[in-house]
Amino acid sequence: MSHTAIDKVLFEAASAIRARSYSPYSNFAVGAAILADDGQVYAGCNIENAAFPQGNCAEASAISAMIAAGAKRIKRIYVVGNGAAPVTPCGGCRQRIREFADLDIEIISHGVDGEPLICTLEHLLPHSFGPEYLSR
Ligand code: THU
Q1: Is there an atom of ligand 1 within 6 Å of 49 CB?
Q2: pTM for the full model?
């Protein structure tokens, strides 16, 4: 499938699950969708709670769904959040993605409206630390 075709699938999956976001504290609803190494799409939304720092980001939820289903690697990931400006993964989620992805995969950040920002993981998380450091 071409990037254009898979991005349509990922955008629709991220947008659909974004509608299920539980974000009453920030009112900032985010959806994420992963194309995994098994060819399937795994999606997640942000889930907040009254103890604010304990919330889950959409990317973390999507990674949970991927791992729980038995897939191993992120091949492409799409993030959709409020507004027109692209919603890029937070610093913590860049590291979470790093655990399960090669540095050259593309992360597509999207507002609900507007144009997407397409960046490699290496661009969003330069000089990163990863699991290979622990096996040296
Ligand atoms: N959030 C995500 O889920 N993913 C991002 O990439 C950026 C931020 C969530 C966390 C919190 O629930 C809300 O957006 C506001 O920060």
Answers
A1: no
A2: 0.96
